[in-house]
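Changelog note: in this version the structure field was regenerated for every chain. One regenerated record is shown below for reference.
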Amino acid sequence: MPLVVSVMGFDRSELAELVAGVGARPEVALVELNFSCPNVKTGLEMGAEPSEAARAVANVRSLSDAPLIVKLSPTAAEPAAVAAAAAGAGADAVSLINTLSGTALDPRTRRPWLGGGGGGLSGPAVRSVALGQVAAVAQGVSVPVIGMGGVASGAHAADLLAAGATAVAVGTESFRDPRAGGRISEELAELLAQSGFSSRPDPAPRQPLHAKSPANRL
């Protein structure tokens, strides 16, 4: 089974160090760049705007032969433009969405539950946002799009595929059900079979997601 490792850094040099170290490991098939963390030099998230994303990708592209997936920030003004810039700079795929910023209060104290005051909102609440952004990004890039956000069933996965995703990731649901990935995959296969498809029909095929290849990194 391919091993995908997600890395994040607070500036481009830290990200480069992590990519070089992780990407050199033979067991790592793909490296995901989490671009939803802040760049301390500019005050921007690396994925907040196209030129920042492009610079970050270009800075690490030569450091590893592993395919690079850019995890896009859902708070970018134009996620599709950021995705196109990342792909143009050498990203092999993009993934979205990451969590949305939110706050939860302790019902006893009415103070923020998390030490930092807030955190990432995920799960069913972000599913419609994920569908909208995946659809917009898929229209603007030719690289594979990995969709995620609130996937808890095969039907949810099918929705993301219909929106343009090449593959689907399962996150929050795995905390509730550790076997969610396998279950959702089986539900999706059954749903597609009932619809007469062995896999998702794609009028504009993208590069397949697979491990390293000299001719095609993804």
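Spot check on this record: The first strand starts at residue 3 and ends at 7. Helices lie at 12-23, 50-60, 79-88, 127-140, 154-163, 173-176, 180-194.
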